[in-house]
Amino acid sequence: MSDEITLCLESMKEEMQNAFLYLEKELDKIRAGKANVKMLDTVKVDYYGTPTPIAQVASLSTPDPKQIVIQPWEKSMIGPIEKAILAANLGFNPQNNGEVVRVIVPALTEERRKELVKKVKQESEQAKISIRNIRRKTNDEVKKLKDGGVPEDETKKAETSIQKTTDEFIAKVDQFYGFKEKEIMTI
Predict the structure, then answer these.
(1) End-to-end alpha-carbon separation of the chain, Å?
(2) Hey, what domains does the chain have and what are their CATH numbers?
(3) How is residue 159 annotated by DSSP?
(4) pLDDT (tens digit, 9 = 90+) per residue, 26-54?
């Protein structure tokens, strides 16, 4: 295959991988009934007037599946950490004992589990749409190369490769969706 086509295919694969990684990152934020420190990734603590990610002012751990323990590096940060978790509106009620902040992760109701599965499905569909858009864009680039003098048999091989790669990434998204759905619905 020509260098231009190889470059197009590599670029497409990288973009599709990025779309999949974005999906993974988004679905990691959706809690499945188990405590996960990533649940607090969006929380910003007022650190001397600067909104700072919670992971930069404290160490986070999950000693058991139902709680997150936040150990601030400065004791004066316990109040602002509690306030930030409440302000983030994640449905958590932080408790502190003067040393650490504990976040108890409540069990999910059946209704809430179904809502989360719907959200996971929406995110998965968005990822598939992104992957298909990348396929369309890459096919257009290959057609331009064909018009620019690249042999037709090479462009046909490229189109076949594009479809194969697209199918692989769509299957990865479906597999990840199935895994996440099972994780959410398992009590």
Answers:
(1) 51
(2) 3-29+109-185 (1.10.132.20), 37-104 (3.30.1360.40)
(3) H
(4) 887 776 667 778 888 888 998 888 888 98
